[in-house]
Structure formats: C-alpha cells, structure tokens
C-alpha cells in the first residue's frame, strides 16, 4: 500500500468520521423529537453515509476503523452483560431459557430451511455441492439468530423501559448472544 494512499485514508478517517458522528448525533436528536429511539437516527445516518449510498467513507477507511469497531463491541458486551440481573435469573430461569431456546430454535430452523430450499437459486451458490449449501445455510441461520444487545439497551434506556418484561427482554437478548457465540464456534 503506497504511503500517499495510506495518508489519504488517514485524512479521510480523521476528517470525515468526526463529521459523520456529529451528523449522526443530530439525526438521533431529530428522531428523538418524534419519539423514536436515537439509535434509529444513528443507524439511518450510517446507512445513508455508508459505502453503498453516499459513499462518504471508502472501504479502506472502514478497514482503518477496525480497532474502533473492536473497542465498541467490547463496550457493547460489557453494557449488555451489566444489564443481566443474575439474581433474577437464578430465582426464575425458566422464562428466560424457554424464550431463548424457542426463539433460537425457531429462527435457526426457519432460516436454515428457507436457505436450503432457495440456496440453489442464489447466483453465487450455483455449482456448490449440497453439503456446501447446507454449511452456508447453517451460518446464515446462526446470523439470523443474532440480535443486537446495543439496540435493545439503547431503546430500553431511552424509552425508560422498566419492569419484568423489560428485564426479561434484556436477559433473553444477553443469553441469546452467548448462545450465538457458541453457535458460531460450532459452525
């Protein structure tokens, strides 16, 4: 990678990322005025400013942000873990476990079945053996199970969600994320 190109990427990251973050913050505030979660505004800003819309950040600049991605994932993991009330989970684990397993099994089986049937009609999968299609279907199904604890935390906090249902939602989200990590390891 040439020094000139690398320098351009650094300048792009240093100048555009802060501007996009400020824009996302403002869009989040606008969404909040309409009683929508701020995170919806942040996501909308990401979609619009991303490579496949306005292209404000190149793929090379996004690659340079991988350390920041990892740090953000660590913060999300810590925040999600801190929302799990172990005392409540120990007292009555059945609702969390039943919901987690029900959502996980139904979602995984549904996505796997649909992908297995439709997979042969997807252009980039043509010519692959059925075993390969099943392997890709398994990964797609595992991705289908994954949910964002960050969005759940953000929405519940911003909307001041409290009570047994909100606690159950957070517990299921966190336990399911642990399960998804195990499922990815198996795949």
Topology:
Elements: H1 3-33, H2 38-49, H3 59-64, H4 66-83, H5 86-91, H6 93-118, H7 130-145, H8 149-158, H9 164-186
Helix pairs in contact: 1-2, 6-7, 6-9, 7-9, 8-9
Give an account of the 3D structure.
- The protein is mostly helical and 187 residues long.
- 79% of the residues lie in helices and 0% in strands.
- The chain has nine helices and no strands.
- Helix 6 (93-118) packs antiparallel against helix 7 (130-145) and helix 6 packs across helix 9.
- The radius of gyration is 20 Å and the shape is globular.
- The two termini are 33 Å apart.
Write a concise synopsis of the structure shown.
This protein has 187 residues and is an all-alpha fold. The chain contains nine helices and no strands.
User: Globular, elongated, flat, extended or rod-shaped: what is the shape?
Assistant: globular
Helix content: over 70%
Assess the beta-strand content as a share of residues. Answer: under 5%
Overall SS class: mainly alpha
Q: How many strands appear in the DSSP assignment? A: 0
Average pLDDT level = 83
User: How many helical elements?
Assistant: 9
Low-confidence stretches: none
Main pleated-sheet profile: none
Order of helices and strands: HHHHHHHHH
Termini Cα gap = 33 Å
Q: How large is the radius of gyration? A: 20 Å
């Amino acid at each position: 990678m040439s020094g000139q190109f690398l320098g351009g990427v650094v300048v792009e990251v240093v100048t555009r990322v802060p501007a996009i973050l400020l824009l996302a913050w403002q869009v989040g505030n606008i969404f909040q005025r309409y009683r929508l979660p701020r995170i919806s505004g942040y996501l909308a800003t990401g979609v619009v400013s991303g490579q496949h819309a306005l292209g404000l950040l190149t793929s090379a600049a996004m690659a340079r942000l991988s350390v920041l991605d990892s740090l953000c994932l660590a913060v999300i993991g810590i925040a999600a873990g801190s929302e799990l009330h172990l005392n409540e989970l120990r007292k009555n684990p059945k609702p969390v476990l039943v919901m987690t397993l029900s959502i996980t099994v139904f979602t995984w089986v549904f996505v796997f079945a649909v992908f297995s049937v439709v997979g042969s009609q997807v252009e980039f999968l043509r010519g692959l053996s059925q075993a390969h299609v099943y392997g890709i279907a398994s990964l797609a199904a595992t991705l289908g199970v994954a949910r964002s604890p960050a969005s759940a935390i953000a929405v519940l906090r911003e909307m001041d969600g409290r009570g047994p249902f909100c606690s159950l939602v957070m517990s299921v989200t966190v336990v399911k994320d642990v399960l998804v990590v195990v499922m990815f390891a198996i795949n």
